[in-house]
Amino acid sequence: MTINLFFQHLANAISLGSLYALIAIGYTMVYGILRLINFAHGDLLMVAAYVVFYAQGIFHLPLLPSVGLAVVLTTATGVIIERAAYRPLRNSPRSTILISAIGISFLLENLAIVVFGGRPKSFPLPQWLDIGSAAQIGQVTIENITFAIPVVTVTLLYVLLYIVQKTKTGMAMRAVAKDFETARLMGISVDRIIAVTFSLGSALAAVGGIMWSMKFPQINPLMGMMPGLKCFIAAVFGGIGNIAGAVVGGFVLGVVEIMIVAFLPDVSGYRDAFAFVILIAMLLVRPTGLIGEKAAEKV
Amino acid sequence: MILSLSGVTMRFGGLVAVDGFSLSLEPGELVGLIGPNGAGKTTVFNVITGVYAPSAGKVALEGRDITGMRPDLITSLGMARTFQNVRLFSQMTVLENILVSLHRRLKASIADAFAWTPRYQREEKCMREEGMALLSQVNLADHANARGGSLPYGSQRRLEIARALATGPKVLLLDEPAAGMNPAESTELMRFIQKIRRDFGLTILLIEHQMRVIMGISERIIVIDHGITISRGTPEEVSRDPKVIEAYLGVEEHA
Amino acid sequence: MTPKDLSIRRGIIFLLATVAVAWAGGDLRAVGVTGWDSYSVRIVNLMGINAVLAMSLNLINGFTGQFSLGHAGFMAVGAYTTALLTMDPVTKKMVYFMTPIIPPLQNLTLPFIVALLFGGAMAALFAAMVGVPSLQLRGDYLAIATLGFAEIIRLVIQNAQVITNGALGLKGIPAKVNLWWTIGVALCTYVLLRNLLQSSFGRALRSIRENETAAQAMGINLFRHKMISFLISSFVAGVGGGLLASLLTTIDPVMFKFPLTFQILLTVVLGGMGSLSGSVLAAAIVTYLMEFLRIVEEPRTLGFLTIPGIPGLRMVIFSFALVIVVIWYPRGLLGDGEFSVGRMLNSFRRMVTRRRAAV
User: Fold this and answer.
1) The CATH number of the domain where A220 resides is what?
2) Quick check: B186 pLDDT over 60?
3) Closest to C68 in 3D by CA, of C200, C209, C251
4) Would you say the pTM of this structure is higher than 0.90?
């Protein structure tokens, strides 16, 4: 393995890890508040990608407005899903709401197949992000997009952490995650906070989805399924309900995946399976995740 | 000594729920455990019945160490409990609730159940008869085929006790059986508890907030606050103990 | 009615029903009976298989309350096992043209019933391995873990070229299945599972669903019983997979992805998680609708107008239906109990007056 190749793999690993981290945050925030695995979260990736595709391709909007539109529409989708399919089931047994989430995920995917067609489409890339436009650092060549992703991710993380730690809304989010009833008694509108949580998570997923499509410019209706599952696993790995944990989990998963492809090419056919292996090992050895908290259940 | 706890400590992260708790029960006794809310009483029950493994200390049933043993194994050794929040199998019938407790004594195999062999049918018949007999003893036989969740609250509590009885225990742990009952119902309950102790030869450990009930039927009382034992003795002694009065500070119910 | 009377009655119904369906399906051609055309027969065969699959998923998800999403994996194991054990050596040589099949399997051909049971057994074996880690997990985690395992199983099948022919799949599986088999197995499954669920074991499983902590306190070994339910469920799923393989005569790893589990889950939810006859009824309905809705996916001509078909619309309708059912009618068609005219009427009355069923 040459130095060049190694650094490329490393850069890819960090990039992929960033993308997983962005998406994992949405899972962990929703789980922290609702104890729900939002199966449909991964599909929001896909929604954002297609919005940009059509905004640029059909309506000829430049990049930034397209991205803005995609983020808005994806966020709206996330909030609508919560309102329509999850809120009515808040007092139902957990399996019911899980089924609803699975149903919504399927609905999104199949709706996309019907509306957009099942064949993969080529994602439009701006000049400076096009494949082949790369930067040179010494002997190492790294694509521009691979650089851009971690930068954007870190920026967004800072913004998110600011919101969660320093604003009243963020405090309310943390309160609701700890205890619904108490938060309600304190005058917090639980419904509103849940909507805010979904918005933030969906917005991050939207950005993640757009950047994903820039790195892997073939989009299709099912593109969100596997990353979605992997990102949930990343969130569990880092400690579900814990934002820092989701970030760590996302990075670890991304790095491990690329390392497998890089150093063990023979088993790369199983690259998706490894995420599940990690999950199962995790759940057995340390179910609260790397940075998780022990949740005591009242008997 | 049929049940003994020595130096039981239970920590949840930084919180010490129970600290160095000790207790010994002689066969046939009826002992009460009282304390303000959050004192650690249910935690003690959970440690005894294996729901939690204690951070320190030992639990022994008839001399046998059962510390941290799985709850279903502890039940098969002869200890049963009820819960603070009624945990009936509400979608199942009253009789079925009882029959679940009899399941572990089933001798027929699962193949017998699949094929509904005569051997299985005989056992099923026996189980149902035993279940109905128990329901008669607790005056719930008329409701045998009603859904567990459809019973009035007082009957649900009685069913929960009956369900625990069906496991054939030597020691019975009752967690706030009179919760939510009015004076008439709780008097009925007091008689009921004394009756089952007699009829089934039980040793009973009882958690209860209604002072009239617990002072009325317990032979002796242990008072616990913030996980520590603050008083022991007969109901009279304990009710006069200044430490106990201080712990409750006016949260007393008058008979 | 004593249990003995009940089982005799059940046996008679089982026998009569099998004969009736086989009669209608024309499988009594030897005695000069002709019945349905082969398309209808295929649909009914599928209904039977889906009923088997739905009942098995209901056992673990509905009755025991353990939310497993691994069904497709166990079906795959059963399908491949049955296929490999029934295909004749000549076909095997042809199908495994890229890499030959491993020697022990090359010439091994067994009677259909043996192959089916073996398929179920293999599925149960995999379930044992999956269940040990997974069944210790709570609700949502169990779902993801079983989903993960199903995907791992599928990937193993896809990569084990020398055993399964990998991504190329298997063709030329002998079509041994007919109405006797599908309806027969479905009825058998129904009777056996009903017996189990009405027995003490059934009560133990349901108590786990109702309240695990209390069940454990009443002496129920949680892990053991969850495992029993899981093993039985996957055994039957394996048999169902085997029947499916024989019906379709072609299988490949791609068909055992999550959408397959989804379809069965939908069937179980629709029929009522906790009603065996509900699963059978829902299986018939869903199978029929799957076929019927093909219409919306193919172009149609109305006079001089050609309405283009919309591929994929079926699945949109089904996923939408699942969400609607789970929000508005979570008890499904038959809720917690078994089929009876009164119950069906109640169900319709509830739906019509749009009163949300009490959870």
Assistant:
1) 1.10.3470
2) yes
3) C209
4) no
